[in-house]
Amino acid sequence: MFRLIFLILCEKFCFLLANIQNNTIFANCFRVRTRSTIKPMEKSTKIRIKDIAQRAGVSEGTVDRVLHNRGEVSAKSRTAVELALAELNYRPNIYARTLAIKRQFRFVFLMPCHVQGDYWDKVEQGIAQAVNEFADLNVLIEPYYYDQFDRDSYRCEGDRLLESGPDGVVIVPTFTQETMRLIGRLYEAGIPYSFVDSMVEDEHFVSYYGQHSFQSGWIAAKLLLGDLPKGSEILLVRMRRAGEDISNQTRSRHEGFIQYMEENALLQHYEVKTLLVDDDETDAGCFELNEYVASSPALRAVITFNSKVHRLAQSVSACMRSDIRMIGYDLLEKNVDYLRQGVVNFLIAQCPERQAYLVLRDLCRNVILKQPVQRVNYMPIDILMKENIDYYHTFES
User: Fold this and answer.
1) Nearest to 235 by CA among 327, 347, 320
2) What whole-number distance in Å separates Cα of residue 203 and Cα of residue 201?
3) Do 236 and 276 touch, CB atoms closer than 8 A?
């Protein structure tokens, strides 16, 4: 009996030992195979005009004329050079070519005047980033400021920038009619232009960077109205400007909000009220908000479609209404303070710094480097609340 057990144990031991040896051999083979098949990356060699000329069988001067599209070159020689470029996988140093031009490019950024800490202050941070990055391309970026509550101010600054003859323009289309007038004149003058923050329907602009305003309004409704008790009152606070009732962007956000309610048959379950107030910080506007909140016991949700949600939060706090949900836009310091306190439930961010930087980057690529760029670029719709605001990083580099 003991002899049988001993023999079985010996057999299992031998089997295990063979397995270990086989695995070791396999592992060693794998390591050897890995070392033998992975090759270090070869350093790329710089392709000279001389190399292209030798491959094409033409002079260096002919190659130079083809690369820079100047002077007379026969069809046969041009074809030979282009074939050599393809065979050598030649990629021109566009930045070096641009520096050789030795001229300054001047871009104008038409934007609202503002104070420190305002939404447009963040836009200027993006402009400063672009100025630093494109300094080697000899780019000058000059802001032109207008009063966002004054249509005439917008028109005057537009006329002034046209007279200055810039190489390109970035436009914040605050006033639709005046924007259409401006871009028509820019197009006639052959001056490229782009939109930021919002855009108008036009087929000639270079690029646009901003939020999908309609979709952000749709998302805001979904966030604000989730499990809201039926029969609640919802207040939509809309800000109007002098000379034009509502901005393009806030109008589109409002449309998205209402579309969500219609798609989900919510209009029949809630009482939706709209309060139109002046888009400024006057005492009259604050009093109007305070009075409405204090006299509306059924009010359970509030939204504004621009960056002034702190005004609503101030009124809700003054009336000591902790039963009201609130959502707004943009990471202004005042807005974030109320978010951290829990007075504002959600903020929807759109990285204005990033928008400004990217629209200027694309203008440089298109105007200076003659590169194609994507026309419509929607920014991420970032949803912030007090639980994640401290982990959110805005554009820095």
Assistant:
1) 327
2) 7
3) no
Q: Is residue 38 part of a domain?
A: no
pLDDT at residue 5, rounded to an integer: 46
pLDDT at residue 288 in the model: 82
**Is 3 inside a domain boundary?**
no
In the sheet that holds 325-329, the strands lie side by side as 271-278, 233-240, 299-304, 325-329, 346-349, 382-384
One-letter amino acid at 379 equals M
Q: Are 311 and 281 in contact (CB under 8 A)?
A: yes
pLDDT at 22 over 60: no
157 and 120 in a single domain? The answer is: yes
Distance, CA of 356 to CA of 130 (rounded, Å): 8
Whether the pLDDT of residue 153 is over 70: the answer is: yes
* Structure tokens, 281: 């910080």
Do 328 and 246 lie in one domain? The reply is yes
Containing structural domain, residue 159: 101-211+353-379
> What is the number of domains present in the chain?
3
CATH value at residue 154: 3.40.50.2300
Global pTM reads: 0.72
The CB density around residue 62, as the number of other CB atoms within 10 Å, is: 22
Decide if 370 is inside a domain: yes
Are the C-beta atoms of residues 313 and 343 closer than 8 Å to each other? yes
Confidence class for position 224, pLDDT limits 50, 70, 90: very high
Under 8 Å between Cβ of 55 and 87: yes
* 156-177 pLDDT per residue, tens: 999 999 999 999 999 999 888 8
> Letter for the amino acid at 270?
Y
Q: Which residues of 257-284 are buried (b: 16+ CB within 10 A; e: fewer)?
A: bbebbeeeebeeebeeeebebebeeeee
Residue 349 confidence (pLDDT): 93
> Are 135 and 165 contained in the same domain?
yes
Each residue of 228-250: pLDDT tens digit? 999 999 999 987 765 555 677 88
pLDDT of residue 276: 85
Q: In Å, how far from its chain's centre is CA 220?
A: 19
Residues 249 and 313 in one domain: yes
